[in-house]
Specification:
By secondary structure, the chain is of the alpha/beta class. It has 11 helices and 18 strands. The protein has 2 domains: about 210 residues, FAD/NAD(P)-binding domain, CATH 3.50.50.60; about 140 residues, 2-Layer Sandwich (D-Amino Acid Oxidase, Chain A, domain 2). The structure holds flavin-adenine dinucleotide.
């Protein structure tokens, strides 16, 4: 069974796929046809929907900082650019800031990261412990030496709303979204030729984008490519608290625990230790993480959280790049016209606009135009040379 030819087929229509579709079709230099294949139009299990949906400029790698800064710019213009027939999508962007806390051991890293961030133009300020105590009287600062706060541009958003806004806009610009599961990639002589669906139907394309999140590894293998990306579970806990915490940003504790305001309450999480973090595809929440580790840490940092009330929780999957927890972007040298955007490892929501734009440039111009993301390509993977990001949350 055969169908029509598309210029670009995108596998996966969540944040990354919809961003790529939007950036392709909003570029006057692109005149092609775009098909987005999404296996689950309810989007209930994808990382995008289950995300903690926060955006920070506090990375240690210039490319990550720049990508997130573009994410902020994109969010600030979102309502205008995603408008369809006068109806503007709202990603509910709150510029509440990130606060990275450090004990004596972590101060040097915080300081060297700050230098990189400021050199890239990020608006980050470092506070010493007395400043932190004065600014956040609800916080226990007794073990802290410093903290770095994003004064603008960082915060949180409605990830589902952002994705749906991009999707809707892409459709208004001509993208076709189809509910279908891609079973395998089709290729010939080192050149991608299209995809095959699970019903056997083949769809031919000049370019294919693998934006399939945690299914990207299986798909890549059907083209003989070993993508070092694995699905790892992260649980998110929503709680309310009688504690007053005015001006609470997204707080990243030195222990790796995080919390931030969300609606009337807060969300929080922490990565499990490596031995408790196997590759994983179920959605069972790791309640023991909350009871045994996270809650005590939250109560230690904010004494008022001792009396918090856990309201709900959920688990989602990171598409974890096992080499360096950074994005793998662009073509593999052995397969032409197959573009990857995988291994986003927990920062793909904020990077989705920059990644979509980069993919569109690779297709339209054959090179990056806005932001040189060459270092995030396949070469480092093939040479086993990690691009180290020190600020992984
Ligand atoms: C708990 C949690 C917290 C997070 N917190 C943050 C955060 O604070 N900030 C941040 O920036 N990022 C965060 N992330 C990461 C971010 O959500 C993801 O990196 C981002 O959403 C990835 O988007 P994606 O479109 O690449 O993948 P996904 O959202 O996973 O989408 C992939 C899509 O592909 C579809 N698909 C898969 N296989 C096929 C197939 N064979 N055929 C057709 N369709 C297919 C899926 O149905 C899915 O809709 C978090 C993630 C999780 C799980």
């Amino acid at each position: 069974m055969e169908t029509q030819l598309f210029d670009v087929v995108i596998v996966g229509g969540a944040a990354t796929g919809s961003s790529a579709a939007y950036f392709l079709l909003s570029n006057p230099d692109f005149q092609g046809k775009v098909l987005v294949l999404e296996q689950d139009p309810s989007y209930q299990h994808c990382a995008t929907t289950l995300s903690a949906a926060s955006i920070r400029h506090q990375f240690s790698t210039p490319e990550n900082i720049r990508m997130s800064m573009f994410g902020t710019e994109f969010l600030r213009q979102f309502k205008r650019n995603m408008d369809v027939d006068g109806d503007a999508a709202d990603p509910a962007f709150v510029e509440g800031g990130y606060l990275f806390l450090a004990t004596n051991d972590g101060v040097e890293t915080l300081r060297s990261n700050l230098e990189v961030q400021q050199a890239e133009g990020a608006n980050i300020h470092m506070y010493d412990a007395p400043d932190l105590a004065a600014k956040y009287p609800w916080m226990n600062t007794s073990d802290l030496a410093a903290g770095s706060l994003g004064l603008s541009g960082e915060g949180w958003l409605d990830a589902y709303g952002m994705m749906q806004g991009m999707r809707r806009k892409a459709i208004s610009l001509g993208a076709t979204y189809r509910s279908a599961r891609v079973q395998k990639l089709l290729h010939q002589n080192g050149h991608i030729t299209g995809v095959e669906l699970d019903n056997g139907e083949q769809i031919h394309a000049k370019f294919v984008i693998n934006a399939a999140g945690t299914d990207a590894t299986r798909l890549a293998l059907t083209a003989g490519i070993d993508l070092p990306v694995q699905s790892h579970k992260r649980s998110v806990f929503y709680f309310t608290s009688p504690a007053a915490v005015p001006g609470c940003p997204m707080v990243i504790d030195p222990t790796g625990a995080y919390f931030r305001p969300e609606g009337e309450g807060f969300i929080a999480g922490i990565a499990p230790s490596a031995d408790q973090d196997p590759p994983c595809t179920d959605f069972d929440v790791q309640h023991e993480l909350f009871d045994e580790l996270l809650w005590p840490l939250l109560a230690e940092r904010v004494p008022g959280f001792e009396a918090l009330r856990l309201v709900r929780s959920w688990a989602g999957h990171y598409d974890m790049n096992l080499l360096d927890q950074n994005l793998i972007l662009g073509p593999h040298p052995h397969m032409q016209h197959l573009l990857f955007a995988n291994g986003l490892s927990g920062h793909g929501m904020q990077q989705a606009p920059a990644v979509g734009r980069a993919l569109s440039e690779l297709i339209i111009y054959g090179q990056f135009r806005s932001l040189d993301l060459t270092r995030l390509g396949w070469q480092r993977i093939l040479e086993n040379q990690p691009l180290i990001e020190k600020n992984v949350v």
